[in-house]
Amino acid sequence: MKEGLQNTRPQPQVIIPSAAYSGAIISFVLCPSELLKCRMQIQGTDSLVPKSSRYSSPLDCALKTMKTEGVTGIFRGGLTTLLRESFGNAVFFSVYEYVRYYMHLQLKAASSDHNDLIDVGIGIVTGGLGGVAFWSAVLPLDVAKTIIQTASDKSSTKNPFRILNSIYRRAGLRGCYTGLGPTIARAFPANAAAIVTWELAIKLLGIKRE
């Protein structure tokens, strides 16, 4: 069993570029949807957004954004989203593949009983840790993205590094990681569930990974 697993040792030269590339592609879908989500989330009180400027629905938000900022306005923050997803996915899948490899190496070599239960446990740990690693690595970029997408002054900078530099000077590293607690609390169970489902689907389809 150990010999078979050694043959499937994770290959970072494959994992990192493929995960980064997939993240870049995903960003083109995520950027518009997250822009709408962020803009609708900040209009919860009159002190943030006057009633005359509020959106009645995601579609209304999209239409008003394109009317005032053009079609490219819907992709505001696109570069930052691309950086977040590319780097974040490279981190996620690196952690996922390495943790999965070493857990299989130890647990499945030690026991052949309850393999399904072991697979679920490995999925929970690998997915959860991958999600935590993802957001721990890229949360500052997400903070900058949110600021870019919700800025009232549409001519304000879209450079995430300038924004993060400004935040760091004003509030230190803590400011760059605003919302870390709730994000991590969400990331572990959400990604654990996703990976468990992924692993079970692979097994049901009869796809061999080792």
From TrEMBL:
Keywords attached to this entry: Membrane, Mitochondrion, Repeat, Transmembrane, Transmembrane helix, Transport
Topology in membrane: Multi-pass membrane protein
InterPro entries, per the entry: MCP_dom_sf, MCP_transmembrane, Mitochondrial_Carrier
GO cellular component, one term: mitochondrial membrane
UniProt keyword Transcription regulation present: no
Localization, UniProt: Mitochondrion membrane
Keyword hit for Transport: yes
Solcar repeats mapped onto the chain: 10-102, 118-204
Family: Belongs to the mitochondrial carrier (TC 2.A.29) family.
Protein name, entry field: Mitochondrial arginine transporter BAC1
Gene (name only): BAC1_0
